[in-house]
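TA notes. Do not distribute before section.
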Amino acid sequence: QVQLVESGGGLVQAGGSLRLSCVASGRDFSSAGMGWFRQAPGKEREFAAAITDRGVTTSADSVKGRFTISRDNAKNTVYLQMNNLSPEDTAVYFCAAKTGYSSIAYYLRSRSNYDYWGQGTQVTVSS
């Protein structure tokens, strides 16, 4: 069992930055693939960025060049640095963990491949 707790969300003006954190507990974090997804009101949950157990990253086109995912295995934490935010980035952001096949970045782009989810953190970007 893996528990995931996100933090770092909040209200920010367009053009601003936020850094989300997700702390994992319960299993060997370093062997898990980790992802960030987001869900805006009335929309489906969508992929934002992910990182394999070996540190290979992949991100959605909508956030490429603005969002950066990273991990600190010593702290059991994955981060999402979000820069140049726009109102379209407003959503609840979820952290997710995948055990097994965690070295394949392509698999980490699909929400159905994840085993564990956090409760989410709200990000609101004002114009």
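Switch to the second chain here.
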Amino acid sequence: QVQLVESGGGLVQPGGSLRLSCAASGIIFSIATMGWYRQAPGNPRALVAAINTGGGTNYADSVKGRFTISRDNAKNTVYLQMNSLKPEDTAVYYCRHANYWGQGTQVTVSS
């Protein structure tokens, strides 16, 4: 059974940082492409960042230079380091592998 469990969301002031984690089980993590997506109210879910098995990454234009995706294959975990957060980054963030999604973690950027 595949499980993706996100953690690390919360409330942060503009300009602050958060690190999201996604712990995976039930998959061969080391050969899995992993992605972070986000969905704000009234908007479709959209890709934020992805990382492939070789460590190659791609990012949405809106987060380039501010967010970093990484993975620890020994821990079956993918991370999203988010710096210089803006109010428009407020959303529920989801971890994804293939057709599997985590439950999401809320990130709120507000003063």
